[in-house]
Amino acid sequence: xxxxxxxxxxxxxxxxxxxxxxxxxxxxxxxxxxxxxxxxxxxxxxxxxxxxxxxxxxxxxxxxxxxxxxxxxxxxxxxxxxxxxxxxxxxxxxxxxxxxxxxxxxxxxxxxxxxxxxxxxxxxxxxxxxxxxxxxxxxxxxxxxxxxxxxxxxxxxxxxxxxxxxxxxxxxxxxxxxxxxxxxxxxxxxxxxxxxxxxxxxxxxxxxxxxxxxxxxxxxxxxxxxxxxxxxxxxxxxxxxxxxxxxxxxxxxxxxxxxxxxxxxxxxxxxxxxxxxxxxxxxxxxxxxxxxxxxxxxxxxxxxxxxxxxxxxxxxxxxxxxxxxxxxxxxxxxxxxxxxxxxxxxxxxxxxxxxxxxxxxxxxxxxxxxxxxxxxxxxxxxxxxxxxxxxxxxxxxxxxxxxxxxxxxxxxxxxxxxxxxxxxxxxxxxxxxxxxxxxxxxxxxxxxxxxxxxxxx
Length: 457
Known about the structure:
It contains 19 helices and 14 strands. The protein is globular, with a radius of gyration of 25 Å. The strands form four sheets. It has a five-stranded antiparallel sheet. A five-stranded parallel sheet has the order 7-8-11-6-12. By secondary structure, the protein is an alpha/beta fold. It has helices at 2-7, 35-38, 50-53, 63-70, 127-133, 152-163, 181-191, 209-217, 233-236, 252-264, 290-295, 301-307, 323-339, 348-356, 362-376, 389-404, 410-428, 433-440, 444-454, and strands spanning 17-22, 27-32, 74-82, 88-100, 103-113, 171-174, 199-203, 241-245, 266-267, 276-277, 281-286, 310-313, 345-346, 381-382.
């Protein structure tokens, strides 16, 4: 890995920091151009865990971890790093997997710091640097088989993906947060004729809107202070697919330029005069209802019509409750393997609770709740006591609202909810005041006052 890094060292002249992480999340190389700002010595993080140096980093939120898991590059996203000393640094980052003979052996994480010394217009990466670093274009190991469902609407989506595999039409995927849009997008790309061509992803909400145009279309040297001749994502994705996630957050000006690409298949770099023809299939995802976005003028109507040639609407988990037992079993097996545990089942009470709960965070929330239960559990079966407090509290509050809501004031309803949360937490913590106060994140004195006030013994 060090040999790979040394070979490409000349490419990182225009970045502020760089970190190489191996497949076991061990930091193998660390560089910063501004040690007075970062306050970590160059050798200090070496051979230590990524999560030891940055304890607030979570695997599910880390693009480094996603690049390791899926072998995909994530370009120009906002990230806040807080080290174990408490030092914080906001940055624009790009995570690029390192592969040898097709196997992912690590990730290069490159950063530009968002602080006083940085020109605001420079807060994006020279994407040609990233293209050079990548030994192979993005691909995904996820396929149709990773979409776990017995629901008729999801099965219909999977069948349609197969039927439309030969189509080069643009695609719109709509679904609430956590429904699995990216799984569907990966399956579409994996089944398409462009599966071996470039597949580049960009979250439109992850970077400042003022920078999105230069990232998408590239820049010309001299177009603004510090600007270089750099290709944008459309040029890098030429011949392949560009996935624009959370497109409903894209500014209308950028959408106007995107419309021209959709109509003419041509792009012009920022500050440039020449046009370049590109052949890019666009897959766009939205977490808000597209028609509503058009009505609210968050999405241009002409963009909407051109993108939804092929459209996939992913239903929320509460609308396909029959998938909950399947997903529970899938995550149980997955987490047993990941956490080296031997949990064999859920109690019937837990199954009933999961079935009745509305899951506003959808499949992602279900997975996180089960993972939390795995951490809380020390036996072979997941019980009610392993489930996060808020799940029980919300179910109980729903019951209160249905049974007594019309006769209760807001103050009384909030008091009822508080009683439920305190009682659940108190029982969960073995009727120990200190531990209950810690879980509820209030002082021991405040908890004792509330318990006395509500008559909780």
